[in-house]
From TrEMBL:
Domain Tetrapyrrole methylase residues, every copy: 6-214
Molecular function terms, GO-annotated: uroporphyrin-III C-methyltransferase activity
Alphabetical list of Pfam families matching this protein: TP_methylase
Family indicated by similarity: Belongs to the precorrin methyltransferase family.
GO BP annotations listed: cobalamin biosynthetic process; methylation; siroheme biosynthetic process
Organism name: Parerythrobacter jejuensis
Name of the protein in question: uroporphyrinogen-III C-methyltransferase
Record key words, sorted: Cobalamin biosynthesis, Methyltransferase, Porphyrin biosynthesis, S-adenosyl-L-methionine, Transferase
Pathway: Cofactor biosynthesis; adenosylcobalamin biosynthesis; precorrin-2 from uroporphyrinogen III: step 1/1; Porphyrin-containing compound metabolism; siroheme biosynthesis; precorrin-2 from uroporphyrinogen III: step 1/1
Residues spanning the signal sequence: none
EC number of the protein: 2.1.1.107
Amino acid sequence: MAETGTIYLVGAGPGDPDLLTVRAARLLGSAQIIVHDGLVDRSILDLARPDATLISVAKQRSKHTLPQEDINALLVREARAGRDVVRLKGGDPLIFGRGGEEAEAARAEGIRVEIIPGISAANGAAAAAQIALTHRDASSIVSFVAGQCKGLKDQNWAGLAGAGRTLVIYMGVKTAPQIAEKLMADGLAPQMPVAVIENGARPNQRVLRGMLAGLPDLVESESVISPALIVIGEVTARDNLAVARLAQEAAA
């Protein structure tokens, strides 16, 4: 009987293969099975060993290649067959990546699990857009929320955004109108600066800016698609001011 393999929950980072951890790159080059999300860039998958089996379990809004329970079962089945399995996820596996659920399912079956963190989508995209999520003059609190939670309108977001705070919303493209409406109903100023970062840390990255009240129109008029993050807070305007100042100094 083959020795049971290990399940590695690996963060692929925001998309740029140069932002992988050394450990993640090594595992990609040695794993027999790689089970990956749809948001993992092809250039990262190209780091797999030539004979590795690549299995896509891409998820889209309301449409999953495999239900989560079936993904859990797939990971366990392959490990029980004696194969080391890399479960490759965009960003970090424990931030809106369901890594916790997969680790629990594996441990319940007696399968060894190792978690390799990745640069989160929030950290990677914000850095690529030169947005400091915290800043001594603008923000000392950062909150991450999912924009596709069931019962979004009933979620308590009071106090997550406002002066001195930064709110980062994952998976919020489709629900941008509800998000803006909800935050303004909770008292956030319509003029609060926002940024939408599409394809963060990738060659086709776009950074779109506006105000909270105009967020739905911004997403629609610019045809924003996933993967995209919405960042709300005063920090989203600071780099714009710096860029404008540098441009003025250069022209002087």
